[in-house]
């Protein structure tokens, strides 16, 4: 006799409400053990590997790869009875219906075997209680709720009349037809089915694809649709929220960084920096940390609920990283307490980890002030948008040979432009100018970093 349990998407401890299924590491019929990694999910902050909270045989994957799922929604069904259970099809495939006694209530797996309605959570992230009733699953990004599929209707233990009502509001198509439509980029909601009971057939999908291709060939242009989810979705929402919540002001300062570039070359030769990548960004970071120590209000946040300004006790220095998954801002915790070699190592390691897609939610949370190095893209300056919850962000432009007046004589010097955006509710023009001027002065003469530290 099978003992079917469902593993529900846990809250990974960052207050996130949904995640995308990236890669399944198991399939129906596989035997799994408690603690085994079964799936990779992508939250708005990081890719996380999820272990199973129980052992048994996988009977069904309830969610397809690429689908967005709410926290608390079931994602996999496992038979924990210890016997071999027949594997049911994966998500998106039709499953045979099982007869139930007339009038019998639909079963509600509790998700963790406790029988108390507790929701399984990732080990180490704490427990959140939640009702065990199934929540509607979200459809894949860019696809209407009508495209979720008949498999979910049959999988959900709902009364027959409710299932019939749901089917009336959904496009009727078999799983192979759904897959064909997905591969061809055809939305089922736009089609009129010619099959039995108005179901959509392969011919319907292929006809729609041919019509689309013909229209594209006539115009000579093809539109591309990119699903907005995961990091990109979070980044877009965060930037809109930041831009329309905090009143931004940006100031610019052109700086002669010839001495800093010379210091970078000398530091690279020191034994303390052997094997560590040293770049001008290291000196920019140190200068901003020193400036934050001299002007603590720049390292703060606006608490709207409490109507307070929170001045942070330590500087968690964020570095904007252009990763494959989108713009990410990991941060070096308590960066102001690190000696220069340790700071160089931390910046290099965090950047490499983030670009490799291995940054954790802890790496990406809790920042207090940010640097964005637009110079690596060949850009001189910009007006950076604040990282939500922070009061300032510094953009470091490219270093280029520039005509400069030195002691009354025209010379060619290494120069760059610094751009400081700040929250004008917290930082007024005088304070913003003082911070930017201090950073510029230290980059013009790195010895000042020693004097002001």
Brief characterization of the structure:
By secondary structure, the protein is an alpha+beta fold. The chain is built from eleven helices and 19 strands. A hairpin with a 2-residue loop joins strand 18 (400-406) and strand 19 (409-423).
DSSP strand count = 19
CATH third-tier fold name of the largest domain: Chloramphenicol Acetyltransferase
Strand content: 15-25%
Distance between the termini: 70 Å
What does it look like?
- The strands form five sheets. Strands 9, 12, 15, 16, 17, 18 and 19 form a seven-stranded mixed beta sheet that branches. A four-stranded antiparallel beta sheet has the order 1-8-6-3, with no helix packed on it. It has a four-stranded antiparallel beta sheet with strand order 5-4-2-7, with no helix packed on it.
- It has helices spanning 150-155, 160-168, 175-184, 202-219, 230-245, 258-268, 280-294, 340-355, 361-364, 429-444, 447-452; strands at residues 4-8, 18-24, 31-32, 37-42, 47-51, 56-61, 68-70, 74-79, 248-256, 300-303, 308-311, 317-319, 321-323, 326-328, 331-332, 369-372, 392-396, 400-406, 409-423.
- Helix 3 packs parallel to helix 4 (202-219).
- The longest helix has 18 residues, at 202-219.
- Helix content is 28%, strand content 22%.
- Strand 13 (321-323) and strand 14 (326-328) form a beta hairpin.
- It contains eleven helices and 19 strands.
- With 453 residues, the protein is an alpha+beta fold.
- It is elongated, with a radius of gyration of 28 Å.
- The chain has three domains: 1-138, Beta Barrel (OB fold (Dihydrolipoamide Acetyltransferase, E2P)), CATH 2.40.50.100; 142-227, Irregular (Dihydrolipoamide Transferase); 230-452, 2-Layer Sandwich (Chloramphenicol Acetyltransferase).
